[in-house]
Amino acid sequence: MQPMPVRSSGQETVEFDNPSLANHLFGPHNANLDILAAVSGAHIGNRGASVFIESENSEVRRILCSVFIQLYDLLRNGMSLSQQDIVRSYEMLCADPSLNIAQIFREAVFVRTARKTVTARNVAQKTYLELLRRYELVFAVGPAGTGKTYLAVAMALAMLQQHRVKRIVLTRPAVEAGERLGFLPGDLAEKVNPYLRPLYDALHDMMPQQKVSSLLEETTIEVAPLAFMRGRTLNDAFVILDEAQNTTQEQMKMFLTRMGFSTRMVVTGDITQIDLPAQPDSRRSRSGLVHALNILHGVPGLAIHRFSEGDIVRHPLVGAIANAYDSAEKNG
């Protein structure tokens, strides 16, 4: 039976029919209720399998009721929820009270390993996954922590396992290394390896290390600096260019023209974090990503997806810390 809110002046109560699921929803020692109270400003408590919400703001009460009812339904259908999922649900419903949370959380990229199943955690990620499925070339632009690269790697692994591509190529420029590359030990590949580490981290988070090592050894998965792409044509591949804001215009053109038949490309970057040397004699950005976004936005067959600060997926404590620092800066 679908739980229904019971209203009284300044308070709403939602009663659940399964005490065990209700306790899971409330969290250990009501931790989930506490975190929702912190982000909403409402007073939230429980009596047995019921949750009560007290707030002078009727909209806050309505959104919280929707959060509890929708998440309870997800638990009843076998989905596990983290504390981050609880907070994200509240934030998404604040932005769009008519949202169906189940449609967001069930929009999954299934990576068939024992390690990971990756799901969209907000509306922006859901849209991004839909674009990755539909288009051969996708630009994803936005701040760190929005899942631009992580979701692209997940989609690449899913398509590899479905035999829709034969290999995965992950690349990024090493511009942040600058002239210091010459002082690092080893050959060029070993010198730039630290700058490719985030790509390896994403792989290892989704697949057992032994499987990743095997695919790398077979070159089914290739992780390489952008300089290694020159002169190649990439067929039957899923290719991801990370940190693309640090490519030059020439490098971006070189990369995009590597696309071969049955290949998909994803270009990710944050145009507010460009590390290229400044050009004092020019007002134009040297960034290949900025240039590409300006000249390719009308080209059919590709998609551009923009994430915002509000789409950052992070631990609730990180959000609280960031808010505390922002408040301190505003207060001088």
What's the arrangement of secondary structure elements?
Layout: E1 5-8, E2 11-15, H1 19-26, H2 31-40, E3 43-47, E4 50-54, H3 58-76, H4 83-95, H5 101-105, E5 108-109, E6 118-119, H6 123-134, E7 137-141, H7 148-161, E8 167-172, H8 188-206, H9 209-217, E9 221-225, E10 237-241, H10 249-256, E11 264-269, H11 288-296, E12 302-306, H12 316-330
Parallel strand pairs: 7-11, 7-12, 8-9, 8-10, 10-11
Antiparallel strand pairs: 1-2, 2-4, 3-4, 5-6
Write up this protein:
This protein has 332 residues and is α/β, with parallel strands linked by helices. The protein has helices at residues 19-26, 31-40, 58-76, 83-95, 101-105, 123-134, 148-161, 188-206, 209-217, 249-256, 288-296, 316-330; strands spanning 5-8, 11-15, 43-47, 50-54, 108-109, 118-119, 137-141, 167-172, 221-225, 237-241, 264-269, 302-306. It has a six-stranded parallel sheet, sandwiched between helices. A four-stranded antiparallel sheet has the order 1-2-4-3, with helices on one face. β5 (108-109) and β6 form a beta hairpin. The longest helix has 19 residues, at 58-76.
